Amino acid sequence: MISIAIVDDDEKSRILLNEYLHKYETEHGSQFEVTAFNDGECVVRNYHGQFQILFLDIQMGNMNGMEAAKKIREHDKNVVIVFITTTVAYAVAGYTVDALGYILKPVSYIAFSQILTKAQNSIRKNDKLFLTFTGEQGMFKINLDSIYYIESLRHKVIVHTGEKDYITPGTMKALEEELSDKGFARCNNAYLVNMRYVDGIQQNNLQVGKWMLSVSRTKKKEFMNALTDFIGGGMKQ
């Protein structure tokens, strides 16, 4: 299911876009979770990367769509942004926030469905490079290259990145299956390591960025084989 936000201070426009989304779901077999906001300030206030597509009206009171997009881009480089505007002149600045495109008002279903398809294709392409999960503060989408290792702790997992840690319910087994072909391997039952960041091995200790992780006897051979294949395959960055 794709999470979408409609941000427009005109109620009729919000209703119309919501109807278009339902029509698109029926025609294409897609599933959307839709949230509506009546100005840019509302969506920015509690934004934490929970949306995959934003339809932003440019001309709004309090905080317009361009200002909202700039603030959101400070925290989320991956959300797909589509501007809705009455004139092309307002949309040309969209490149500054890496917008996918724009739709002119009055919005036609054909134009809307075309850019929605483009947005979905962009999401599918990027999803291979991201880990999406629901944490204690909502839904998060993290670039795999920012993850150093994942730690299992009782019935939760902790995703360790260079900037912060994310805690989410789940099992290590499910994450291992999801990430096994993306350069991750277990060095023991508690740690799933991004092999891009393995800086050295000393006996039964593994240097991963600033962390020193233990390598279990039962996992060592399997991990070393995976690491050798990873480096030999030219994936080391």
CATH architecture of the largest domain, by name, is 3-Layer(aba) Sandwich
Low-confidence stretches: none
What share of residues are in beta strands?
25-35%
Secondary structure: helix percent: 25-40%
| Strand order across the largest sheet | 2-1-3-4-5
Shape by Cα distribution: elongated
Write the CATH homologous superfamily of the largest domain.
Response regulator
- Biggest sheet layout: 5 strands, parallel
What is the overall pLDDT average? Answer: 88
**C-alpha Rg (nearest Å):** 21 Å
**Structural class of the helix and strand makeup?**
alpha/beta
Order of helices and strands: EHEHEHEHEHEEEEEHEEEEEH
Distance between the termini: 32 Å
User: Could you say how many structural domains there are in total?
Assistant: 2
CATH topology of the largest domain: Rossmann fold
Helical stretch count? 7
Structure report:
With 237 residues, the chain is of the alpha/beta class. The chain folds into two domains: 2-127, Rossmann fold, CATH 3.40.50.2300; 137-232, Beta Barrel (OB fold (Dihydrolipoamide Acetyltransferase, E2P)). It contains seven helices and 15 strands. Strands 2-1-3-4-5 form a five-stranded parallel beta sheet, sandwiched between helices. β6 and β7 form a beta hairpin. The longest helix is centred in the middle third of the chain and has 19 residues, at 109-127. The radius of gyration is 21 Å and the shape is elongated. It starts with a strand and ends in a 5-residue tail after the last helix. The relative contact order is 0.09. The model has no long low-confidence stretch (mean pLDDT 88).
